[in-house]
Design brief:
The structure holds two protein chains of two kinds. By secondary structure, chain A is mostly beta strands. In chain A, 0% of the residues lie in helices and 48% in strands. The chains are: A mainly beta, B mainly beta.
């Protein structure tokens, strides 16, 4: 039982390049989330998917897109990376809405945009 | 504005000592308050979750308290161990905005031998 897995662990991009961060969970959870964590700040929600087939914007969605591929997988895409997107990205999942259910986090992807 | 403020920003203690981390919030109305532990290079892991009607909750050597009247919470760590070195994050659920989670910036704890 791996929980929440993320790939890659580290990535360096040049400004303007694109990439997709992958996330998968094996707990049969309905809801999945993407957060970013910056030094001195709390985690901020980028996008979430309350259930398979639905996605919604969070607090900081600009510059990102997401796909809920199936119940297990939720990917985050940067179409044209910018230095301001240098951050650590965490995927999380929960059985139901995060407000009422435990959230389980992946190990993170550390992204640097030069 | 709905905010979560944690203090101190960082803390160094000797192994075996106790410590208390603080969390003050302005989130209202709130449904629950959580404490997470985040080891370096890892994702956050839940320690405790308390509803607005609970005053205290324990998880081994970790005890969280909540005063909903003063909007304050604390996390007390007893008999600290080297493995307690981590960032501790306070999270408050805002009922008003679809149960949105509001995260504090965390307190970095270092336990020295």
């Amino acid at each position: 039982n791996a929980g929440v897995t993320q790939t890659p662990k580290f990535q360096v991009l040049k400004t303007g390049q694109s990439m997709t961060l992958q996330c998968a969970q094996d707990m049969n959870h309905n809801s999945m989330y993407w957060y970013r964590q910056d030094p001195g700040m709390g985690l901020r929600l980028i996008y979430y998917s309350a259930s398979e087939g639905t996605t919604d914007k969070g607090e900081v969605p600009n510059g990102y897109n997401v796909s809920r591929l199936n119940k297990r997988e939720f990917s985050l895409r940067l179409e044209s990376a910018a230095p301001s997107q240098t951050s650590v990205y965490f995927c999380a999942s929960s059985e139901g809405g995060a407000g009422s259910y435990e959230q389980y986090f992946g190990p993170g992807t550390r992204l640097t945009v030069t | 504005k709905n905010q979560v403020e944690q203090s101190p920003q960082s803390l160094i203690i000797l192994e075996g000592k106790n410590c208390t981390l603080q969390c003050n919030y302005t989130v209202s109305p709130f449904s629950n308050l959580r404490w997470y532990k985040q080891d370096t290079g890892r994702g956050p892991v839940s320690l405790t979750i308390m509803t607005f009607s609970e005053n205290t909750k324990s998880n081994g050597r970790y005890t969280a308290t909540l005063d909903a009247d003063t909007k304050q919470s604390s996390l007390h760590i007893t008999a600290s161990q080297l493995s307690d070195s981590a960032s501790y994050i306070c999270v408050v659920t805002n009922m008003e905005y679809g149960n949105k989670l509001v995260f504090g910036a965390g307190t970095i704890l270092r336990v020295k031998s």
